[in-house]
UniProtKB/TrEMBL annotation:
CDD domains per the UniProt record, alphabetical: crotonase-like
UniProt cross-references to InterPro entries, sorted A to Z: ClpP/crotonase-like_dom_sf, Enoyl-CoA_hydra/iso
Gene Ontology MF: a single term: catalytic activity
Name the record gives this protein: Putative enoyl-CoA hydratase echA8
GO terms (BP aspect): fatty acid beta-oxidation
Organism the protein comes from: Paenibacillus naphthalenovorans
A Pfam entry, by short name: ECH_1
């Protein structure tokens, strides 16, 4: 198991990810995240969910080893569906959720981060969507969430350029709820979790539902985005991007 429930105590569920050393989002990790969050969110004794990744990085994105098979089998639609199911299991949790973010939160890792209600960044954290440098674009559901949180301008900058930003800039965009020194990250997350757990659960969950209902009413993106995701996976450039990754060289795109 890559994803585990570490503890449930005093109304706080603590979930951890351990897929050394980059905590990449393999298909198996996505399924485990979906299953664990779906199970924990249904526990009436849980008032807050805290998520942390072990090791130096929060999550460095997709497992690139799975890309050749995905491209060959034209399975990008399935990957889109599994990624969205994973993110929805977090977004649909009635309890407030907190992510403890250190090191890199890139690509699918950035999408995972934005699924949480509160995103506490260590000062050394980096955030970004470098997918375009491999010929694709974010396909786990984080694109929609990113626009909701930061606006289309910031989303365009990060997703179209593939830029990676530091924690301070992420906070200026609204992506980071709070930035703390790396050595205080766990403490800051625990303080927030305890505060949320002390508040009346019905009121907290109603407030969260109200915010998410408003955001969710603004777009119906899934079918359109899924089609685009499949299209880019059928280009020569995505094959070049993946090959360049494994060959440790700069990709040479032909724009087809």
């Amino acid at each position: 198991m890559y994803v585990q429930i570490k503890s449930v105590a005093d109304g706080i569920a603590r979930i951890s990810l351990s897929n050394p050393k980059m905590n990449v989002l393999s298909n198996q990790v996505k399924r485990e995240l979906k299953d664990v969050f779906s199970r924990v969110s249904q526990d009436s004794n849980v008032r807050v969910i805290v998520f942390a990744a072990e090791g130096p990085h929060f999550c460095c994105g997709a497992d690139m080893k799975e890309f050749p098979e995905r491209i060959e089998n034209k399975a990008s639609g399935k990957a889109w569906d599994e990624g969205h199911l994973m993110l929805r299991s977090i977004l649909n949790a009635p309890q407030p959720t907190i992510a403890c973010i250190q090191g890199n939160a890139l690509g699918g890792g950035a999408e995972l981060a934005v699924a949480f209600d509160f995103r506490i960044f260590a000062e050394n954290a980096q955030f970004g969507f470098p997918e375009v440098t491999r010929g694709v674009f974010p396909g786990n559901g984080g694109l929609e969430r990113m626009i909701d949180i930061a606006g289309s301008g910031h989303a365009m900058k990060l997703m179209v350029t593939g830029s990676v930003i530091q924690a301070a800039e992420a906070k200026s965009m609204g992506m980071a709820t709070e930035i703390v020194p790396a050595e205080r990250l766990a403490e800051a997350v625990e303080e927030l979790a305890q505060r949320l757990a002390s508040l009346p659960a019905a009121a907290v969950q109603a407030a969260k539902r109200a915010v998410n209902r408003y955001l969710g009413s603004k777009h119906d993106f899934d079918a359109f985005g899924r089609g685009l995701f499949q299209q880019v996976h059928e280009t020569d450039d995505v094959r070049e991007g993946v090959n360049a990754f494994f060959e440790k060289r700069k990709p040479v795109f032909k724009h087809r």
